[in-house]
Amino acid sequence: MEILQQSLAELKKQVNRRTQQATHPEVEASVAAILADVQANGDAALRQYSEKFDGVTLTDLQVPQAEIDAAYNNCAPELLAALKLAQRNITSFHKKEISYGFIDNERAGVIRGQKVTPLAAVGLYVPGGTAAYPSTILMSAIPAKLAGVKKIVMVTPPQKEGINPAVLTAAKLVGIDAIYQIGGAQAIAALAYGTETIPQVDKIMGPGNIFVATAKKQVFGTVSIDMIAGPSEIGIIADENAAPAQVAADLLSQAEHDKLARPMLVTTSLTLAQAVNVELEKQLATLPRQEIARASVDNQGFIAIVADLDDAFTLMNAIAPEHLEVQVAEPMTYLAQIENAGSVFLGSTASEPLGDYVAGPNHILPTSGTARFFSPLGVYDFVKRTQFIQYTNAALQPEASAITTLARTEGLEGHARAIEARFPNQPCGYKSRG
Ligand SMILES: NC(=O)c1ccc[n+]([C@@H]2O[C@H](COP(=O)([O-])OP(=O)(O)OC[C@H]3O[C@@H](n4cnc5c(N)ncnc54)[C@H](O)[C@@H]3O)[C@@H](O)[C@H]2O)c1
Ligand SMILES: N[C@H](CO)Cc1c[nH]c[nH+]1
Ligand SMILES: [Zn+2]
């Protein structure tokens, strides 16, 4: 990977250009055309795009239940056991995110509160262009179920040989209501607008490539979305004691997701940087998804050399990576310095794939610098809050003049009179004291 050795200020500019939400006008335009086509032509457009982008002629848009049951029943025991282990750990972590709202009665005669309601219908995007992602089904459906969402549908790109049985097994394990074999921007359009076969949902969740991430951005407003979870990223902060082979392996674990995936190393040691580059070459030579990973390493990846660990954390906060590994001594002591990152892996044992599969925290995470303001997918994404107020007349009386004063200051006489109407027996309605 390219080694960058400049001042911190110059490094910040460089990495900002490379890592922050960029616009891709040609992708934006082709996604907009796909969305409009699906909105106008429904299922027929979905079938056309599946031919064009996935090379699949679809008969059923919805995966038949018999196919899902067969996949589950024939699943290898070790795969089912692995999925169940992941399911247990993801469930125990996400249970802690459940919120029940609140009700307060701090002042006599006043009740205020917030109630939490699950979304009625959500659509989960499960990527499937170059790899199958049963783990992503667990990561999105488990928090949805814990939140109490009643209708959970899933979309995933069609495959010539049928949807991967591991994907179908995971979907059955977590209780997905319907699976539609459709991917890319066209799948996002279907969930946003509805078609003859696919129901419109309230919110679309899940990661995907640049077409999926762009489509989610464009339908936002018609439906809600969780975040921008695009091509994967890994940022590693390492000092001179980190093991080059482990650092390189972890960088490649994310590089193999997508040609646009971003592997990034920030280190205080030029010696480590050079050793990692040697290791990357060695390991790439035998990696099955070598073509994808090489494009990512060569075109998106970089190694930044910094003066000390304080600079390393400053630079990483500017990048706001999806995943951040901290491979230095006493990693926990740096947690307070980390402001922008989707998921943090502390210490050399906490290799990123641990979080992808079994640790329990979510692996659907913000990318392209959006960890500055987005959080990991969680139970909170599948609910909405409604607040409520109840007052007695006696409780309103001492606050009424504040309301009428503020209303009249805003030139909203109707607001003031609505309050005064609560005190009809006082001459000329409510009169403020003094
Ligand atoms: N950020 C996260 O939380 C997270 C988690 C898991 C995976 N990911 C990312 O998900 C992505 C998965 O990507 P993928 O490609 O394997 O699967 P995908 O399902 O996201 O995309 C495949 C679809 O892209 C569409 N497509 C492909 N080329 C197109 C073109 N030229 N024009 C219009 N549409 C086109 C096709 O419709 C195809 O079905 C990777 O980028 C991976 O890094 C991110
Ligand atoms: N690392 C991905 C998120 O960027 C998630 C994933 C799923 N399977 C393997 N990895
Ligand atoms: Zn991964």
TrEMBL record:
Q: Which residues bind NAD(+)?
A: 125, 186, 209
Give this protein's Gene Ontology molecular function annotations: histidinol dehydrogenase activity
**Which EC class, in a word?**
oxidoreductase
Query: What InterPro entries does the database record attribute to this sequence?
Result: Ald_DH/histidinol_DH, Histidinol_DH_CS, Histidinol_DH_monofunct, Hstdl_DH
* Family statement drawn from the similarity comment of this UniProt entry: Belongs to the histidinol dehydrogenase family.
Purpose of the protein: Catalyzes the sequential NAD-dependent oxidations of L-histidinol to L-histidinaldehyde and then to L-histidine.
Q: Which named protein is this?
A: Histidinol dehydrogenase
Q: Which organism is it from?
A: Loigolactobacillus jiayinensis
